[in-house]
Amino acid sequence: MRVLLITQTLDRQDSILGATHGLAEQLARRLERLYALQLWAGETALPTNVALRSMGKERGATKPAQLATLTRAVRTLAARGQVDLVFAHMAPLYAIVAAPIARLSGVPTVLWYAHPHVDLKLRLATALVDRVASPTPEGFRVPTAKLTLTGHGVDTERFLPPRTPCQGPLRVLYAGRISRSKDVATFLRAARLALDQSPAGALRFAIIGRPGSPADEAYLAELRVLARSLGLEGALELGAAVPYPRMPEALAQCDLLVNLARTGSADKVVLEAMSCARVPLVCNRTFVPTLGEDAERCLFRERDPGDLARQILRWAAASPEERQAVGQRLRAAVVREHSLSGLAERLVRLFREVIAEARRGRVGAGW
């Protein structure tokens, strides 16, 4: 099977998108050939059956030039019979451009999407592609019969529990993009409330991440001012983003991972923390099935620093052995439901099914 993957980047060092590199690697191991077209190039270490090309954003290519490169690549590979399927990853626009061109040569298109946001582009992409894949129902909100649920893809062989138990104060971490939509301010306010109710030195807080836009840069400046006004200087480390290969180490060094995204598509960092046997605190109820019997102790109310502080203090009062037992239980759930190898197997199975339907002339049927 030969597949064209179209995605933003396969940079394994990227702190936000680095996981896509692992998915490409796992897919390549199961395919005869993987052609990968990325918006911008980064550091890669992929199998020899992967052919890489960039749309040139890193070289300053304009959006029309980028889309022209995409169009030529899809037309050439499909018309020459060099690919059996086009896989558009997380970008509905790529699917909108690629699907009609690929269909002219009888090549089907699958869109991967995992985000609660729905707009006209997503609806149009859904109409044009043959299938959609998403990890959870909350990650794809357009009603369609084309949807296949796959689970997330966490590299459970890299995101491992630490060999030695954590020592010292309880360490509470926020990791991810610095953005107003991620509600990091609630994390800071909860930290202040929890510190006020704890013995001196019992809690430590840390933020690792980077802004992704000028608006996010402005929000980070606001967070720095807020942290100073709350008097968090001695208990909070506000750090830069960690390169993706170092994320397992960063997660293994915390006791609790806090994620403040609202209910919707699941931020993968929560599942990565669980794979490291760390306890997550979330307000996103998408995680409830994976949290299982521990859900009640891991959930807090959205935008409620008091409720988040209550849960932090609850886990601070728990013994290290109890946190470890819960962490191991949560890791087992991630391995069972959201491993990277399992996701790659499910996607390849979906690809085969869609290709077979295309060859029988039945692709794209129904909503």
Give the key terms.
367 residues, alpha/beta, Rossmann fold, 2 domains, seven-stranded parallel sheet, five-stranded parallel sheet, 13 helices, disordered C terminus
> Strands across the major sheet, in which order?
3-2-1-4-5-6-7
Segments where pLDDT lies below 50 for 5+ residues? 363-367
Strand content: 15-25%
Instruction: Kindly give the count of domains.
Output: 2
CATH topology of the largest domain: Rossmann fold
H and E string: EHEEHEHEHEEEHEHEHEHEHHHHH
Number of E strands: 12
CATH 4th-level superfamily of the largest domain: Glycogen Phosphorylase B
* Terminal CA distance: 26 Å
How confident is the prediction overall: mean pLDDT? Answer: 94
Principal-axis shape equals elongated
Number of helices: 13
